[in-house]
Write a structure and sequence with these properties.
Number of strands: 4
Radius of gyration: 26 Å
Helix content: 25-40%
Strand content: 5-15%
Shape: globular
Length: about 375
């Protein structure tokens, strides 16, 4: 594809940037503080750290401020910044069972080991405006936190709870975990070459655009697929970040990362192995931040893609949600946005060629006798 550089446009580009700054400052409102964006728009910040693939809520909030709230642009900022950082260490696989929970629910059982924990969620609220927030003052705002901390549950509440799927495995209703899993695929250093491993698919989905994977997972739910799962467990909490000690190599806790994790259970399929008993199948989703819709959609697509990956070579999946190439190559928000917005760049050469061909075709068509005319 040919491009032509814009001539004499530097002044216009500078003024376009100034205009963006003017739009941000117009109206006389106070400038948004990064910590206010991080804390008060925490679900938005969580979406950006997930799609950006870099856990840094402060930088995600700054990216949202710079991008005027555009989540795709903000994720692009994080991706670009991450590419400049040196890789200091590689962690071992982390177990979600050690998560310091703030929310934990299961739709598979009424009672689960350790009990349900609703945590922070708007799921049970009516979608009605709270007009009192239009005139919310600083003192009343700070009282919200004080009042909740005063009613904080006692210290007997445990930080971690057993996992629901462990109880299902103990009963023989789920397959045992892989004792010797293959090395995790690094999507930041190696290109996707199909067929891909499950770890490559999960890593790609973990930083995919939330709306994209929701749409494809929804297509499966509505009938363009047959994965109708039950949420065995949905967890939101802080996972301890274990890094190898630089001298001893022993894992030490260097911090914690907010993560949303979802495990869905789907109906069993007949086993091809002789004598193997039927078990439920499992779909898994996990992403940075508090992003429940994305984690559930990811778990559904993980299970759906497992079905597509199990097909015989040369067999096409029956629906888009089971096609790894379709799902994984079309759900990355930064890639999709980049290709979409590149159409705003100069395409003078290619369009001039299109016009020349069309004019030549029209001229040729005009010289041809109409249907039914005598030569």
């Amino acid at each position: 594809m040919g491009y032509v550089a814009i001539k004499g446009g530097e002044a216009a580009i500078r003024e376009a940037a100034r205009l963006m700054e003017f739009l941000r400052a117009q109206g006389g409102g106070a400038p948004l503080q990064v910590d206010a964006i991080r804390d008060q728009l925490h679900l938005l910040t969580s979406r950006v750290v997930s799609e950006g693939g870099l856990y840094d809520p402060d930088l995600a909030a700054l990216a949202l401020k710079q991008a005027a709230g555009d989540t795709l642009e903000a994720a692009f900022y994080l991706r670009a910044f991450r590419s400049t950082r040196a890789r200091l260490a590689v962690t071992a696989a982390h177990d979600g069972a050690g998560m310091r929970l703030i929310r934990r629910i299961s739709s598979a059982f009424k009672e689960i080991p350790g009990s349900q924990m609703l945590g922070p969620t708007p799921d049970y609220l009516q979608r009605l405006f709270r007009f009192d927030q239009l005139t919310e003052g600083g003192d009343a705002f700070r009282d919200l936190a004080r009042n909740w901390l005063r009613d904080l549950p006692g210290p007997d509440l445990p930080d971690t709870f057993p996992k629901v799927i462990d109880a299902l495995r103990a009963e023989g209703l789920l397959p045992p975990p892989d004792e010797d899993p293959p090395p995790a695929f690094d999507i930041t250093r190696d290109p996707l070459v199909f067929p891909v491993s499950r770890s490559a698919a999960l890593a790609t989905l973990s930083r995919a655009e939330t709306g994209s994977i929701l749409a494809i997972a929804y297509s499966n739910m509505r009938g363009y697929g047959d994965i109708h799962p039950t949420v065995a467990e949905l967890r939101v909490g802080y996972v301890p970040l274990m890094l190898p000690h630089p001298l001893t190599g022993e894992p030490i806790e260097a911090g914690e990362v907010l993560v949303t994790e979802c495990e869905v259970v789907a109906m069993y399929a007949p086993s091809e192995e002789a004598g193997a008993k039927p078990v439920f199948s499992l779909g898994y989703g996990a992403c940075f931040g508090h992003n429940e819709v994305k984690a559930i959609s990811m778990a559904i697509l993980d299970r759906s893609l497992q079905k597509g990956m199990a097909l015989a070579p040369g067999t096409r999946p029956g629906n888009p949600s089971e096609d790894p190439e379709f799902v994984l190559l079309h759900t990355d928000g930064v890639d999709s946005m980049g290709f979409c917005t590149h159409y705003k760049m100069p395409h003078y050469v290619t369009f001039q060629s299109d016009m020349d061909r069309l004019r030549a075709t029209q001229a040729k068509h005009g010289r041809q006798p109409a249907t039914g005319d005598r030569a």
